[in-house]
Request: fold
Amino acid sequence: MSEDRGKAPRWAIWLPLALFAGFLALVMAGLFRPADRNVSSALVGKAMPRFDLPAALPGRPGLDSRALATGKPHLVNIFASWCVPCRVEAPQLGELARAGVPIQGISVRDTTENLQAFLAEHGDPFQRIGADDDGKVQLALGSSGVPETYVVDGKGTIVYQHIGEIRPEHVGFLLEKLKDAEQ
Amino acid sequence: MKRIAILAGLLFAGPILAQEEQSSAPYAYRQIDDPAKEAEAQSLMESLRCLQCQGQSIADSDAPIAGSMRSLVRERIAAGEEPEAIRAWLIERYGDYVSYAPQLTALTWPLFAAPAVLLLIAFLLLRRRFGSGSGEAR
Reply:
């Protein structure tokens, strides 16, 4: 029994220090590169779920998921008038719309008056806007917040999800994704 | 008189100040009439994560998206759907992260297997240590 418990090798004395250094490195890594807390949709790569949202504004069609499978890629933007980052991304959405990208909107937990005021102030790039007043379609799409933007290909498959506001540096990437979705 | 006027004014000030989310989800803050079903919904809601305030369950959270999720859970349970089917529906959309109840997947099985493996190792070590004494005596 005693020979089992022979003297520990010399290097073993450094083991606690090495463990401590390893632990410290782990803590530092966590501090300087915080984990990504975005919950991305598990539906990327799958078909857009079926939904049919009523019109959010008078005179503008609502959004039926069948209107997405037209053979041409679309952007589906989940937004709301109460959402501050949505104001930040408005110019970029306008730029995409001017580039000829069809943009469909889903307004979440919003009212017609607030929506009209929002679009009057920040521009209106939307072809259709569906009113998701109770947030059910947002949940069906696996969206965890606003704004979020889905790239949907011509067959109605979600090919990409952009979480958070579209900043100027994201526009080129989204255009690329839309181009890829054409094939 | 002035004070009453101010108080009366405050009554109407709320909706104007709150230029924010206006959810029409019916069961966000209303229980199901059937207490048994409400209890079922409650226990499911306590094990679903709010996606906005990620440390809270949707039962605890006051975030509007949690309200939408509560309404979804209650409406489906009231319609007779199984709680685990609703959990599966949400996991299909948000991944395992949305559920606080641990799922056995290709990624998580070591967590379930580790205690069994450790117990087995402990058993083998103990048997070697205590079993060897009687072995030597033989």
